[in-house]
Design a protein that fits this description.
Elements (H helix, E strand, L loop, with lengths): L1 H26 L2 H28 L5 H13 L5 H81 L22 H11 L2
Helix pairs in contact: 1-2, 1-3, 2-3, 2-4, 4-5
């Protein structure tokens, strides 16, 4: 039966009024336009209230039947339920509380903007930190891989040229004293071992 309720509510509570709202806008008939605007305001309040009443009153006998009857009462051109509820209750209440509601909405908008900016900055910081961490881990893995290749290359070069390079030859670049120049074969061996 719940499925029947949702189906009838979709057709009669939403699609039917939506089509007649379209016709009112198309024909530019102010009377029809106001009638359907009152319906949509009441229907929005009904849907909001229904969210909470469904939790607590769904066990009540004939609950869904009463909701279908209420939507039909709102729509009926004979009862004019939505116009009646709007004029008797909603309009006077909203008129008396309009200033407070507007102030609350402005404050909520400001708070939501501040919260959005705050969480946006935090989200960007977290994303930047994650990107840096991923890049550093990726760079570390890449440098380890390159180091392993270069160490293999150096060991093969050192193995080939170890007979030509004497182990006692050292070159100091930081001191300005004149150093004895190594022999030509020693400088070629050092030059070739410096290449990767």
């Amino acid at each position: 039966f719940i499925l029947l309720f949702f189906f009838s509510r979709l057709i009669f509570g939403t699609l039917y009024p939506a089509y007649y709202s379209y016709k009112a806008v198309k024909s530019k008939d102010i009377k029809e336009y106001v009638k359907w605007m009152m319906y949509w305001i009441i229907f929005a309040l009904f849907t909001t209230a229904e969210t909470f009443t469904d939790i607590f009153l769904c066990w009540f006998p004939f609950y869904y039947e009463l909701k279908i009857a209420f939507v039909a009462w709102l729509l009926s051109p004979y009862t004019k339920g939505s116009s009646l509820l709007y004029r008797k209750f909603v309009h006077p209440t909203l008129s008396s509380k309009e200033k407070e509601i507007d102030d609350c909405l402005v404050q909520a908008k400001d708070r939501s903007y501040d919260a959005l900016v705050h969480f946006g900055k935090r989200g960007l910081n977290v994303a930047a930190t994650a990107a840096v961490m991923a890049a550093s881990k990726g760079q570390g893995a890449l440098s380890e891989r390159l180091r392993s290749f270069s160490m293999q290359d150096l060991s093969t070069i050192r193995g080939d040229s170890s007979s030509t390079v004497p182990p006692s030859v050292t070159v100091r670049t930081s001191s300005k004293q004149s150093q004895p120049k190594p022999s030509r074969s020693a400088s070629e061996g050092t030059g070739s071992s410096g290449k990767c």
